[in-house]
């Protein structure tokens, strides 16, 4: 049922009503849902099932959950929110309209009402178009040394240059290995400043000009990086910097203000995740590229706590007006 075929009042009258709809069932969304459920707020989580960290076998750096498979983490989270009556549906939000409440339309045809929204839709990583990179991403083609550096420490590293910002990645991974080669690939040598070159040399990073043509594997493991000129460099780990594509379509349609960052445009939010649209909070990678799982969970908690207080004050003010 498309919103344009009925008035918002007609749609709202016909739909189920929730205190909060959480869009996205990753760490941020589930964390928000857990806090909301425990606060006795009727909550629906709409999850399209596309977690950013799905390619990774384990997540790291989350105190008490270090090394836990991402799928297991999400499964435990779903079990926990169910204890407090939170509903979860595998679907996708295709439209939201703001009236007195929000009318939320799902791809499956269901329409629900929500007094408040949490947008935790994350982002999508677009990988460089180098043969073998996508197939090995999350295994021995990696992007974050904080997530994976310990597990591959002291191995021969490669870093794929996709922009001048890749210099920072090459410098950073040198903390985990002293054998690092920075393959310029899409970065022209003249794009490197004298300061870049001095820092790379100080970190012991070898700079390798030329385009990367593909990866070399043996027994289902990375063994080398092959250049377009046919030369091969023995490497067992390759770090890449994906192009981040924020999933901000829903927020944009609601009229949320965005701000530009080196990693894309993200919503302007306050310390609790409240966007410039009244009643709409955002959390996790929906607000920034660098939100790790532990940050996302924290952001979901903060947003939920703020929403509980916001709804309380709204109800008290309404009661006083009677």
TrEMBL record:
Protein name in the entry: Thioredoxin reductase
Natural source organism: Streptomyces djakartensis
Question: In this protein, which residues make up the domain named FAD/NAD(P)-binding?
Answer: 19-298
Catalytic reaction list:
[thioredoxin]-dithiol + NADP(+) = [thioredoxin]-disulfide + NADPH + H(+)
Instruction: Identify the keywords attached in UniProt to this record, alphabetized.
Output: Flavoprotein, Membrane, Oxidoreductase, Transmembrane, Transmembrane helix
- According to the record, the segments passing through the membrane are 18-36
Q: Which Pfam families match?
A: Pyr_redox_2 (PF07992)
UniProt-listed InterPro entries: FAD/NAD-bd_sf, FAD/NAD-binding_dom, Ferredoxin-NADP_redctase_2
